[in-house]
Structure formats: C-alpha cells, structure tokens
Specification:
The structure holds two protein chains of two kinds. By secondary structure, chain A is α/β, with parallel strands linked by helices. Chain A has five helices and five strands, in the order E-H-E-E-E-H-E-H-H-H. Chain A has a single domain, classed as Pyruvate-ferredoxin Oxidoreductase, domain 3, CATH 3.40.920. Chain B is globular and about 75 Å long. Chain B has a seven-stranded mixed beta sheet with strand order 3-2-4-5-7-6-12, sandwiched between helices. The longest helix of chain B has 18 residues. Helices cover 40% and strands 17% of the residues of chain B. In chain B, helix 1 packs across helix 2, helix 5 crosses helix 10 and helix 17 runs parallel beside helix 19. The chains are: A alpha/beta, B alpha/beta. Chains A and B meet through helix 1 and strand 2 of A and helix 8, strand 8 and helix 12 of B.
Chain lengths: 157, 526
C-alpha cells in the first residue's frame, strides 16, 4: 500500500461543537511537526446542528484527503450518540475517545469540550507539548486562551 | 511564509493575490464562498455582487480595460452567469479573466450535482482542474498566464473536496505581480458581439481553442505515473488522489488542463496499458472524450456517477463491484433551523394557516423539515416568487389563495426582484403574497454581507443599505408591510390572513437578525 505509513484521525460531533476548530489545530500541529498533512470536511448545511466530522491524515506523502473505512487510527467523538455513526471508520485496535473518557465534570466552560478531547487525543501522538500549546494559543482570542490551554492540559493528563 | 497549510479556497485566494488580480467578485455559494474573503483579507480588492451574472459582467469590464479579474461562484451560479460566459468566450478580453466554478458532487449543500466541465466544452473555454491546494495555487497562476497569451477567459473547475480540504502549499511567487492599470482600446470587431462580428469571432474561437492542444501535449499541467502495464487509469481532480491510493501499482495519466484535452498523450498512454479505466467524479466527461478518440475503455458502473468518490468507492469501481454501499447503521442528525432562529415563528405560522409555500434557496429551505413541513417547492435562486405566480395561475381559486412565496434577503437581491416585476406586470387573478425573510445576512453560506446589510464584503466598510420594502414599493406592489414574526407573531399571522383573503399583490418583509450573525456582530464589537 502506498499509504501504509499514513495515520488517520477522525473527529465527529454536531455542528456548533467546535469539531472543525480542533481539527484545524491538530492539522496545524502535525504540519509544524514536519508531516505531509491533509484535512477534509464538508461545510454548509451540516453546520445547522447536523452531524459533522472532520478527517486529518498525516505521514510522508498523503494522497486522498478522505479516510477510508476501517483505516482510522484515532476516532474522537464530541457527542456520545454520534459514536455509532462513525465507528465504521475505526480500524481494528484503533483508539476511540468519547466524552465518557474525559473529565467533563471539570470543564471550565461547556464550550471547551472540544479542547478537552483534543488534550486526550494528544496523548496518543508523540509530539512535543510546546507545539500543541503554540497552536492552541494561536487559534483563540486573548480572553479564551488561558481557559482553553487549561482544558487541553486537563485532557492530556 | 513560503510553505503553509491551506484549503483549496485559501490557495486560490493567495494565487489571485500573487497574480496581482485587480478585482475579485462573485456571489457566495458553498463550496466557493471563502475564496473572496481570503483574497480580501490578504489585501485584494473583493466584492460580493447581487448575483453571478452581475459579477461576471463586472469582471468582463475589468478585463476589457486590461485588468485581471477573478470571478467565484458555486456550480449552479454559472447557470445564472451562463449568458455572458458563452459570449465572452467569443470576444475574449485583453486582460485576464478566470471564472471559478465550485462543483458539489454529492450535493453536500446544493440542489443538484451538475458537472460544470460541460460548460467549458459547450462554451469553448479552456479549463483547469486542480486536485489539491498546491495545484489550486499553481494552476490559477497558469490560468492567468494562459488568459494573457490567448485573450481567452479560463474556467477553473473545483469541487467540494478540493475547495475545503487543507494541504501543504508552497507559495510559487516570491512577490505579488504588480497590479495593472486600466486602458480601453476601441475595437468593435473584437468587443461588440453583433451578428456580423460574432460570426467572425466564432470562426476565430474554434481554431484558437484547437491550437491549445499542442502546448497541452507538453504536459506542464498533466502528470504521467508509469507503473504496471496491467492497469492504466486516466483521471482528473480529487478523483486522482483517491485513485493513486486505491490502486498504488497502476499507471496513471492525471490531467490538470482538461479542455482541450491532450489527445496524443491520451493515445500514447492508452497504447501502453492492457486495461484502461477512467476514474472521474460526476458525469462521464473524460470517459466519453476518450471513447470518442476510438480508444476502448473498461467502463465504470453507472452507480459511480452519483455522489462523491473516495478511496473505498474507487476500489469498488476498479473491481466492477456495483453493490449498494452499506447504509449507515444509525441515521445522521439532519441539519435544522437554529434555536431562536427567526424563521421558526414564520414557518410555524404558515404551517398553522395551511399555506402552500413556494420556497427558495437559503437556511430557510430547512422549513421543509418537521415540525414545520412548511416548504412545498424549491427549485433555484429566485424561483419562489415566479413558481408561486405559476401556482396561483393554475390552481382553482380557493387553492390559489393558499399560495405564498418566501425568499431570503440575499436571494431577493440575487434574482427575486425580477419576479416581483412579473408579479406586478402579469398579476394572477387572486393577487399574490411574497414574504421576504430579512435576517440581514447571507446566513446559509457563512454570514456574508449583501446589498441589504449596509456593509461591504469585509464586514467593516460602510455601504448604502438597500431596503427590500422600498424596492417593492417602487416596483408597484399594492400592499407592503414590515413585521417581526417572532416578537409580533399574532400581528404577522393576521397580516398573512388579510393578504391571502384579498386580491392585492402584497409583500410582507419579516425582519429580525439571524441569531448567529447577531452573536458574531456583538463579539466583534459592531
């Protein structure tokens, strides 16, 4: 397989939960780490509370921007009832992360669930913490920066 | 800065900026909308126009005066702009004119999945098809060079996955080209398409277009991957990216400059492989062209014409596996009107009054969903008004009186105004009622400004604010009212009832800002 060395991450949830926000951060971190990166999602009508997913692929040379069925290494879901819908993407032995796997009771803002889950995802990638913190800081306005960095650290614990 | 992670749309914006484009214009439409926002953010001169026809015509003017112009739209937008598109193909322009058509195979956010590669063939316009963000950058620069050399408009055909996927892009130009200054040379034979001159222009167009085949055989924008001779794949666009992953051992001819096609290259490639398959998204445009050269291909099953391709589907296509794709085990959440959306009360009221609703294109088309079930037809931008008029003219009187047209503010400015002219000019015997849903933004495509919002594209510069009620009064509509259907639901219901009972031509403007736009505007301190 030409793309055997390619790793795949899928993040899913509902429109408005910040799925695209954290996959943008994830793709940026992998890009800064020197990988070839492709990221894909569908915008538009699905924003209005509908099911939404975004896919990030990285490796030496990525071809298709879309993750084939059964080849996803990490599936992160922001809304538990969406898990079933995307489970077919996950490879055998792949990592599934749902809100049940993160300390949602310690959220400083319900909207920061996405960054909390991103912290949990980051544990499975061997990348320096400064890269993550730099990309998160760049992705949020000043007043939301500290709160999101705290949630990232909590998810990464 | 020379290497970045960019979406296809962002890469087009960057290339346009680096090519010194004098004006970027268009009408918002998923998946094309972010191009002009990006171009404007880089410092380019960009504007939303009322519709795609206006945008293309403005761009033609810029290019007639020697400038470079980029026009962006979604696939169905090119239907609206088709009239100038076909004729500017004859006249050409001394400046550079590139038209971006962002097609939506799979209809993530569209009413059809038409394949706009056919426009290039039909109008006789050269076409590029990028397969990732890097090619979006490189091919757009190439398109402007080609436009210079051949005085021809160029069609730049993107698709949803190319527009919205992010990939690594190396910026090709170290500094942007200088923006050109304008000058107009009077040349009626080239620029005035009356029959006598248009006949000459058409006889020039065909050989000029055919002459582009020879440089395309040099394969500057095409790629040949020579591997196994057992299987050869001809592909274009994002389908190529899926194909090289689905069939890593196959030989591939990937065409980036897809009209006019490099026929010699295709013949030579075909001669080297035992089995030849065309992998393309949408209509069998490449497949038909290859067959027309007398080359035998192993045809794809019809099922692969529908929807997007991906690696799994290309594997099945190559294996002649036309079995139905497994339905998801659970249904995805359908999109819905946001909590607090002003359209909710409007559709509740129309549902409760038993109206037959002729709808239009925008967030409010979601009024078709439960619990509203209050949109009963939807065709294209602007059609709500005129389809409603047709219903009124055909139905018996008691049924005709139930018919209401609903249109959003941006769609009203797009092509709804003409319908109001028709409503007044050829009024149905029962009159008609048009409801303009004015939420003061172009919500569906991501909150773009429009002629009714009082702001230019960049959300900052002020613009004259056109009021729909003033426009329809000026056209001569009998009765015009403005109401907030959320704050004044009973008043709104009474007005609708009154209008339906009368034989007047009526317009009710329902005005209340989009909840999402209101939050954003508060955040940005506006």
């Amino acid at each position: 397989m030409a793309c055997e060395s390619v790793k795949n991450i899928v993040v899913a949830g509902l429109g408005g939960q910040g799925v695209l926000k954290i996959t943008d951060i994830l793709a940026e971190v992998l890009f800064r780490a020197g990988y070839d990166v492709k990221k894909s999602e569908v915008h538009g009508m699905s924003q209005r509370g509908g099911s939404i997913s975004s896919e990030v692929r990285y490796g030496r040379n990525v071809a298709s921007p879309m993750v084939p069925a059964g080849e996803c290494d990490i599936l992160a879901v922001l809304e538990t009832d969406q898990t079933e819908l995307f489970l077919g993407k996950l490879r055998r032995g792949g990592v599934l992360i749902t809100p049940d796997d993160v300390p949602t009771d310690k959220l400083n803002n319900p909207k920061a669930l996405n960054v909390l889950v991103l912290g949990a995802v980051s544990k499975h990638l061997d990348l320096p913490e400064e890269l993550w913190r730099g990309a998160i800081a760049a992705a949020f306005p000043e007043k939301l920066r500290e709160g999101n960095l705290a949630m990232f650290s909590l998810g990464r614990e | 800065m020379d290497k970045q992670l960019l979406s296809g749309n962002e890469a087009v914006a960057l290339a346009a900026f680096d090519c010194g484009v004098n004006l970027g214009c268009g009408y918002p439409g998923t998946p094309s909308s972010e191009i002009l926002d990006g171009f404007s953010a880089l410092g380019g001169d960009a504007e939303w126009e009322p519709n795609e026809k206006c945008a293309l015509e403005t761009a033609i003017g810029v290019a007639l005066a020697g400038g470079r112009a980029l026009v962006t739209m979604k696939h169905v937008g090119l239907n609206v702009a088709a009239d100038p598109f076909f004729t500017v193909a004859y006249s050409g322009t001394p400046g550079g004119l590139v038209v971006v058509s962002a097609d939506d195979p799979g209809m993530a956010s569209s009413q059809n999945e038409q394949d706009n590669r056919r426009y290039a063939i039909s109008a006789g316009v050269p076409m590029f098809e990028p397969s990732d963000s890097q090619e979006c950058y490189d091919f757009l620069c190439a398109a402007f060079l080609l436009a210079d050399q051949f005085r021809s408009p160029v069609l730049f055909r993107m698709t949803t996955r190319v527009c919205h996927s992010k990939c690594v892009v190396v910026r090709g130009k170290s500094a942007p080209d200088a923006r050109r200054s304008g000058a107009f040379a009077i040349d009626p034979k080239s620029n005035v398409m009356v029959p006598a001159f248009a006949r000459l222009a058409h006889t020039r167009l065909r050989p000029d277009l055919a002459a582009l085949r020879a440089p395309n055989e040099e394969n500057l924008y095409n790629k040949i991957i020579e591997k196994s001779s057992d299987l050869g794949i001809i592909s274009s666009g994002v389908a190529y990216q899926h194909a090289r992953e689905a069939a890593p051992d196959a030989s591939i001819l990937k065409i980036g400059f897809t009209h006019p096609l490099p026929e010699k290259t295709i013949r030579e490639f075909a001669a080297k492989v035992k089995r030849l398959v065309v992998v393309e998204e949408g209509d069998p445009v490449l497949a038909d062209a290859v067959r027309a050269l007398g080359i035998a291909i192993d045809p794809a099953e019809e099922i692969f014409r529908f929807g997007e391709l991906n690696v799994d589907r290309v594997r099945k296509l190559l294996a002649h596996d036309a079995s139905e794709e497994p339905a998801p085990r659970v249904a995805p959440h359908p999109p819905q009107l946001c909590p607090g959306c002003p359209h909710r009360k409007t559709f509740e009221t129309l549902r409760d009054l038993g109206c037959l609703v002729s709808g239009d294109i925008g967030c409010y088309t979601l009024g078709v969903m439960p619990p509203f079930n209050a949109i009963h037809s939807c065709v294209c931008m602007g059609a709500s008004v005129t389809v409603g008029l047709g219903l009124r003219k055909m139905l018996p009187e008691n049924e005709a009186r139930r018919v209401v047209s609903v249109i959003g503010d941006s769609t009203f400015f797009h092509t709804g105004i003409n319908g109001v002219v028709e409503m007044v000019y050829n009024r149905p015997p029962t009159g008609h009622l048009l409801i303009i849903l004015d939420n003061r933004t172009t919500a569906m495509t991501g909150m773009q400004e429009n002629p009714g919002t009082g702001k230019k594209l960049n959300h900052v510069d002020p613009a004259p604010r056109l009021m729909p009620e003033d426009i329809v009064r000026g056209i001569g509509v009998d009765f015009v009212a403005v109401v907030d259907s959320t704050a004044e639901q009973e008043k709104f219901a009474a007005l609708v009832k009154e209008c339906l009972a009368s034989t007047r031509t009526s317009v009710i403007v329902v005005r209340r800002p989009c909840v999402i736009a209101a939050v954003r505007s508060k955040k940005s301190g506006n």
